[in-house]
Amino acid sequence: MFDAVRRYRERGGTEVELSEFIHSRRPHYGVNFFVSGYDTPQPCFLGATEQVVTKNGVWVGVIIDYRVQEDLERRLQQTIAAVARTLRKSSYMGWVGIDLIFDLNDQPLVVDLNARIAAGIGVVLFSRHFLSMGFPFAQMETVSFCGPASVPYDAMSAEIESGQVIVTLSAEVTETESVASVVFGGRTREDLHTVGDWIRDVLPACFKT
Questions:
Q1: What is the pLDDT at residue 1?
Q2: Are 30 and 64 in contact (CB under 8 A)?
Q3: In sequence order, which residues have a C-beta less than 8 Å from that of residue 122 and are 6 or more positions away?
Q4: Domains along the sequence of the chain with CATH
Q5: For range 43-55, the mean pLDDT
Q6: Most confidently modeled of 20-24, 56-60, 127-131?
Q7: Which of 46, 127, 139, 187 is within CB 3.0–4.6 Å of 32 for a Cys-Cys bond?
Q8: Entry pTM
Q9: Is 110 within 8 Å of 99 (Cβ atoms)?
């Protein structure tokens, strides 16, 4: 945490807000919805994804279980409606992403709000595609690799053609290193782990000295 604060200060940040630690036994969710005009007071729920972070606390992607979306929508209806009311007071309409944690009493608590399209929106919008292929799970992962932005399309051409893997973004960040956002489906969570490991293996890693 202190290292993250140091980087934040180096980028010009001056204010740090601390909050009480929230204990939870459930996944940390990223909830996507759309706030429309006053004539439709209930926002449009798009989907809730589970946040994926490394052991060092670095966010690397999301997982979605399409089978539980209706239950999560019912459970979070009041929460997203309250957020929508707050945003409408500032005349905001559009995409919204909130980070949400269920506490030990199973009460949803909003810990962050992004009035924009969230990074994990791809797995939400591809639900019909993956379900049609028999994949009730999907994952979005951000992967760094050596070489030009075209590398993922060449390295995973067969899987992309089959529809199991979708590259939603690939960009060159330096002369030698690129980053890609990759979405892939699976029949189980174990399938996602297997495909994720394969993607990281097939894309050439950059070894820093």
A1: 65
A2: no
A3: 140, 166, 168, 181, 183
A4: 23-51+67-120 (3.30.470.20), 134-202 (3.30.70)
A5: 92
A6: 127-131
A7: 46
A8: 0.86
A9: yes
